[in-house]
Amino acid sequence: MAMSKPGPLLAWFYRAPSALYRARLGWILGGRFLMLTAVGRTSGIARRTVIEVVKREAAGASPAPPTLWVVASRGRRTDWWRNAVANPEVRVDWRSRRYAAEAVDLDAAARLDLLADYQRRHPRAAAMLGKAALGEAFTADPDDLRFLARDLRALRLDPKEA
User: Fold this and answer.
1) Which of 112, 101, 113 is nearest to 146 (CA)?
2) What 3-state class would DSSP assign to 10?
3) With CB atoms counted within 10 Å of each terminal CB, which end of the chain scores lower, N or C?
4) 149: which residues sit within 8 A by CB, 6+ positions away?
5) Nearest to 157 by CA among 33, 60, 61, 2
6) Residue 18 pLDDT more than 50?
7) In this model, does residue 2 exceed pLDDT 60?
């Protein structure tokens, strides 16, 4: 089961990094976070949220922006995921870069691969994600990973050609 919506204090804490990105200081948070700007699916207003980057893939030796992957820990109830799926033309602020990207919704098999890779690279952070989503810590157990992949949602953010 996906995480519940955070309370007001925790929601404020989660939104605080957005101020850094708006001030063009997102680089302070390093490469582990990005700010995603997506058009609201019903309002049509630009919505911003800071999200953990769970995987990145450089575009070779070129200076092109990398492809980034993000996970929606509240599953289908995650507002930023719903907005990006409805309007896949998004803006990414990552480190000191800002670029247009296309949000691609991952299928269950791709989510499973992504979560398994994340668990191998960041076992402690993955355990926290599992605790938040499952209510208990998880390991690399295939059943736990399949359960998470079924419940969570993830996007691949492909940079657009300039």
Assistant:
1) 112
2) helix
3) C
4) 108, 109, 111, 112, 115
5) 33
6) yes
7) no
Sorted by where each starts, the structural domains of the chain and their CATH numbers stand as 8-159 (2.30.110.10)
Residue 1 has pLDDT above 50, yes or no: no
Q: Which two tokens stand for residue 1?
A: 């089961």
Question: How many whole angstroms separate alpha carbon 99 and alpha carbon 157?
Answer: 10
Q: pLDDT tens digits, residue range 64-92?
A: 899 999 999 788 889 999 999 999 999 99
Strand partners of residue 105: 155
Tell me the C-alpha distance between 86 and 61, whole Å: 32
Q: Rounded to two decimals, what is the model's pTM?
A: 0.82
Q: What is the DSSP string of 65-94?
A: PPEEEEEETTGGG-HHHHHHHHS-EEEEEE
Which is nearest to 152 in space by CA: 47, 78, 80?
78
